[in-house]
Every structure is written in C-alpha cells, then in structure tokens.
Amino acid sequence: MANDKKHILIVEDENPMARVLSMKLQQEGFEATIVGDGEAGIKSLEKDQYDLILLDILMPKVDGFSFLQKAKDMGNTVPIVVITNLSQQGDMHRAEELGAAKYLIKTDVNLNQIIDTVRETLED
Q1: Quick one: which H or E segment has residue 15?
Q2: Where does the UniProt annotation place the signal sequence (predicted)?
Q3: In b/e form, how buried is each residue of 55-77, taking b as 16+ CB within 10 angstroms?
Q4: Residue 2 belongs to a domain
Q5: pTM of this structure
Q6: How far apart are CA 101 and CA 5, in angstroms?
Q7: Per-residue pLDDT reduced to its tens digit, 10-39
C-alpha cells in the first residue's frame, strides 16, 4: 500500500517549537520533516516533495522572507503557512506578496488551530 500521508516541511529555528509541531502533526496522521533555518529549508525543497510548508520568519542564515522569495523564484507551488511572532501588518502583507498562503502569529494560535489551518490549506 502506498504511503498517502501528507508530508509537511517545518522550517523553524526554535527546536522545542519545531518538535512539538512535528509530534502533533504526526499524531494527526501527517509526515513531518524539520529543518532549522531557511537555507536548509531551500535545500530540502529542492530535493524532496512536500505537500505544505510551515515557515518561521525570524531565523539564522536565510530568514523566512528570503525563503519565500527563493521559493517563488524556483516556481514553488507548495502552499506555505507562515507561523511567526511578527505581528505587524507590513510583515503580513510582505509575506502574502511573496506567496504565503496563510499567516499565523504564534502567540495568537494554539496547536489545534495550526493543525486546522494545515488541513484547510491542503483542501484549498
């Protein structure tokens, strides 16, 4: 039987947050891969297939905005959900212009809301 689990790439430099997200996604029937910065995220996107990307903005090496730009330049069609502490309208607008499907503020959402957003985004 083929593996039909949706594969989620988590691009997040805060390891505790990334691990909790990964565990929750796996409990909900998803496959999850964690990378700790945008540079590793771009490399993963180049070599593997994903159904959705969860992306932090404030990260070392390559930040989330640069990741979004590089993904856009690569012709990426995988939906990207930004999960960040940046709550300014300008940041939200910039992420959307660069192709983010959704923008969540970490302090405003819980794990279940993130999972719901993942499901909704995959259905769109």
Answers
A1: helix 15-27
A2: none
A3: bbbebeebbbbbbbbbbeeeebe
A4: no
A5: 0.94
A6: 21
A7: 999 999 999 999 999 999 999 999 999 999
